[in-house]
Predict the 3D structure of the following.
Amino acid sequence: MLFEVVSPVTEEVIATVEELDVAQTERRIHQAQRGFESWRKVAPGKRAELLRNFARKVEENLEELALLEVKNSGHTISNARWEANNVKDVLYYYAGAVERLNGLQIPVQGGINVTFKEPIGVVGIIVPWNFPMPIAGWGFAPALAAGCSVVLKPAEITPLTALRIAELAYEAGIPENVFQVLTGAGRVVGESIVTNPLVKKVVFTGSTEVGVRIQTLAAPQIKPVTLELGGKSANVVFEDADLTKAAATAPYSVFDNAGQDCCARSRLLVQESIFESFMEKFEQAVKGVRVENPELESSEMGPLISASHRKRVDSYVEEENVLFRGSCPTGTGYWYPPTVIQVSDANSKVLHDEIFGPVVSVQTFKDENEAIAIANDSEYGLSGSIWTSNLGRGIRVAQGVESGNLSVNSHSSVRYWTPFGGYKKSGLGRELGPNATDAFCEIKNVFINTEL
Ligand code: NAD
């Protein structure tokens, strides 16, 4: 069976893609098992070389991949270039890890213990539609480096770059049964991956709701899962911050990728004493965001991913709560303007649900303790920013906020050589950073008796 892929910019069908059923998925998982059995035996130097070849292929085709993502996902061309480049970077980074998968040797009474890091087996990587390229790469690069084979399931609506990346992997010499892309429905292909006993580890990025289902399905097999889930992060601005910089960057900390970003700082917390002066600058910045055809070099925000998603985002916005808005094109494309809202009820779902669109709510706080309390008033804990010129305060607040990734005087979230993941319902486990390969290894501990 085939399913259609629609561009959120033109609303036209741009491709048809294979929709696998359960039997086909199982066959592909068996192939991945055969791939694992040979890939784990490839000498580390050779495996590293193949991953570097793969990285080089991605690098040579960056512009093509970026343009494909613009068409399929509506990402701005500058973001899409960053995303393709990120895949190249993680491949180079984890190619360097292959030769450092070292165990330990531990002296013990009567002998010595040695530990081996052994690849866990076939790894299932299930990714969402909002960042198809980097999120896939954060899983497959360390998994392949560790000696695992990979079955990668892209989201139904954004499969095109994953399919192209697989072709580049094969051109680079990665065997076809070691890295496969399985397209189709989450309930069918996704669940077959999670429940198949040959798949020894699942990395899932997506909604908390589906994350709960994946963990439940994996539990009877005691199958390890890494979960990267939703977020409702805070951007906290103190009165001693550089207000000009904080206001100028605040729109990009939430409207980037049209707000379809798990790290979006969708709750803006501003200290009472500077509320008016900050909001004046912030309004100017929001109205300056260029929402336009994402293929244009000047574009800073593209459309939302689909008509149904736009409807969902809009359902959170009531006109009386809107403080101000930016502009966006009308007509073809799933456009939505950058929108700033303020609600008085602290229990409002606007302040607690992940809206996943270009909508930010504004709240005020009196002091540090209240800022931390509001930031923590969420079932999520993925990201966040703290703006202050007092470094001690920056660190105190960062220590107080229950979140996996925070930045002080910055709105950045991800650096591939540092760990990434969430507290609370934002996830389980960490991706990226120097230890990411550990998630794809079993540790075997062997005692050698030296007294015989
Ligand atoms: P989603 O949970 O609907 O789907 C994610 C993936 O899971 C898709 O490939 C989908 O086909 C698959 N899937 C759906 N049901 C499944 C099932 N029952 N079994 C197995 N697989 C299934 O999420 P989405 O709408 O594609 O993405 C948006 C969500 O992803 C947001 O909540 C966002 O916060 C989250 N996200 C988190 C991170 C992070 O790193 N924490 C990063 C990006 C996105």
Remarks:
- The mean pLDDT is 97.
- Residues 126-131, 135, 153, 155-156, 186-187, 190-191, 194, 205-207, 210, 213-214, 228-231, 262, 354, 356, 382, 422, 426-427 surround nicotinamide-adenine-dinucleotide (CB under 6 Å).
- The first helix runs from residue 22 to 39.
